[in-house]
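Whether sequence alone determines local backbone shape is best considered at the level of individual chains. In the encoding step, the backbone of a single protein was reduced to a row of integers, each denoting a local shape. For completeness, the protein is quoted in full, as a sequence line and a line of structure tokens.
***
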Amino acid sequence: MQRPKSGSPKKFQITGKLIVVEGIDGSGKSTQLHLLDRWLRGRGLPVFTTEWNSSQIVREITSKGKKKGLLTPTTFSLLHATDFADRYERNILPLLRGGYIVLADRYAYTAYARDVVRGCSPDWVRKAYSFAATPDIRFYFRVPIEVAMKRILVSRPKLKFYEAGMDLNLSNDILESYRMFQARIIEQYELMAEQEGFTIIDGSLDIEEQQEKVRETVSQLLPATTKQTVQPVIRT
């Protein structure tokens, strides 16, 4: 994580840890983050979880824009950037300064992938998020598009217009549009993987096996007094 320059006031020092998960819809990242949250709390550590596009300030506006089909790529990008900035200033940064482990279900990398696929300038998008601290760990859950689609369609068989990338006119068929849209997002993630230092998890593995790999990585960040041998994950 980016640290304040020497001489910065003590109140601005970041003592917490920031862990983010990235991946396309259906990659299993949210499930893994939930399990990680429970594991860390079970060790008595202060944890806070934040989700993409969850700020109350812009949620209603975004919902109305989607229903009326009024969101352009630039508008979409700005709304998500506003959502992120609000959560960052209200929750993420203060809690990192307070020593919390902050778990983020999607971070700026989601914007780098989705907004670029929608046609926004990569440099413009990155500047919009340039204030954000660099995470301590960036998990990327890599999963074949067919596996991800199967998971999504089981949980919600009716895809939404923007979710499927129908605004990009990739295909008149919503399923094919979704497939093409998500495939393009995967391409962006793969381009970022090495550049951003992603810790790659095979999202097609069993849930327990993925979680063990996640815990092994995260355990390296924990204070020595809380480190314990990572036990096999028992699904209940």
User: Anything to note?
Assistant: Residues 21 and 164 are 21 Å apart (CA to CA).
